Amino acid sequence: MRVIGWLVVALVALAALALVDPARIGLSTTFPVTQVIAFRSVLAVASLGAAVVLAAVAIAVRASHHQARAAVVLALVFLLCGASHTWVLAARGLTATPLAPAADDGVTVLQLNTYGGASSPEDVARLAYAAQADVLTLPETTAESARAIAALLAAEGGDYQVFTHTTGPWAAFSTALLVSDELGTYHQVPGPPTRAGAVRAEPDDGVGPVLLAVHPTAPLRARMHQWSADLGAVTDACRATPGVIVGGDLNATVDHAPLRHLDPCASAAVLAGSGAVSTWPTSQPSRLGTTIDHVLVDTRAWDVAAVSVVAAGGSDHRGVVVHLVPTG
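^ thats the sequence. predicted structure below, dont judge the formating
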């Protein structure tokens, strides 16, 4: 029985340690590790809590040398894991900066999953106007809603081109991209193939950034292969397109292997020190959810001036506002 007990301790310890960096050992795209590691902040809290509980157990059962030793070992393992998760989150940045003014010579991007209209056109237009957004990437937004947003912004003096892509009958399968006329005239070309829609727009005169609005499918157990394929299509497009700006609900975090090796692209939020501020769900504090909404940029072309993570209307996602300036 004692051997079995220590075997259980070893298995629990190995599982906890593996979750510190599952991408390094090839597990971050495997069910259910994919889903668990998405909530690293929850893992940090749970690991530290488990360490405290196990330390208390070790004290309570100190008369039983074997049980006390097992509890101490696990307490130390969970303490190490909790500290490691916390260090990773702190390194990525937990600062939720207020909405900053846009740079005169840059590009401002608003990424918001509107949750099928839960964030109304008025909500989106209000945030876009406040942020002085040049580009809006809007997963789960129908063509009708996108045109309504553009009309509201036009009433405030801003003209936007509207591009959309729909892959199914519900709003969840629609993705929209709005581009300010101040960036020049754009045209739509086929985007990366993703289950919930993707929009790619390129400047008519070849001057200006290529823009992508994307929405890979969620990593449900039955859709893991599709999720991986969607992410691969998006990240391939990011790496292969000079000067690109990609916004979307990627249904993935930088703890998942597909978002680990993006050079020359990178997450704007991580670069700005806001990479651990959660974007989903809004029902949880901004430091206790998961960061699945991203703006990815070609770091050879763009520096990140500021990033804000803000709520907008009734969507269960927070919006990400990114101010970019050309490098050099």
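The longest strand covers residues 302-310.
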